Amino acid sequence: MKYLASFFIFSLLVFSAFGQKRELMEIQYITIKDTFLVKEMEKLIQDEVNREPDTTTTDKVFTENFFAKGLGYVRLYAGGNLEGDTLTRYYIAPSLVSIKKEAADYVYPPFYSYVGGRLVLVYVPVLENVTKFNFSKKSKKKLRKRVDAFLEKPRDMTFYDMEGNVAFKDKHFRIDYFRIHDDKYIYILKNKPPIVIRDPL
Fold it and tell me: What domain of life does the native source organism fall in (predicted)?
């Protein structure tokens, strides 16, 4: 009888929680206190600033050094499924990708910070597995402005159809530059020094 009553109470709490209208959340500024993580992000940023342009390709993300121009920010993913003596796992990567106004809430990070003068978007996948984030429009707009400050300025672009007629115009056109390598995995261990694994270019 005791277990039946507990199950009934638990069911009421669950249905009550899901029956309520989800409150809108604000994307929060945080201070990153893990000194080893901060140093690795600073190294990542500096490596990008000092990276030599690749003249063997026509891909603008490699032929131009955006970080040396003050552009670019860092994406940080914290946590995950941990095994053995791993206390924390981080994934950090340089980014030159905008967040679109129409993007779903899961595209936005719950937290942001600054390291080495660069914006850091902080994602916590384990939280996303537990709850669904619903951010306020105001909060998302503020974050988009923070991201935009580290990207190329949008420009007017006119697009034409096959016949050479104007198809449409975009007054806020911006190219997103995707990087698929040169990121880092950082493992903070219980009784051993941290391990850093970097994807090569």
Answer: Bacteria
First-to-last C-alpha distance (Å) of the chain: 62
The answer, as to whether pTM is greater than 0.85, is no
Chain centroid to CA 99: how far? 10
Q: Is 193 exposed, middle or buried (0-12, 13-18, 19+ CB in 10 A)?
A: exposed
For β-strands 111-115 and 28-29, DSSP reports them as parallel
The 10s digit of each residue's pLDDT in 56-71 is: 765 666 667 889 999 9
Distance CA 13, CA 15 (A): 6
> What residues are paired with 120 via a beta bridge?
74, 113
Instruction: Quickly list H helices, 98-193.
Output: 125-130, 137-148
Coil, helix or strand for 6? helix
Name every residue whose Cβ is closer than 8 Å to that of residue 178 and which is 6 or more positions away in sequence. 61, 96, 97
Structure tokens at 132: 């669904």
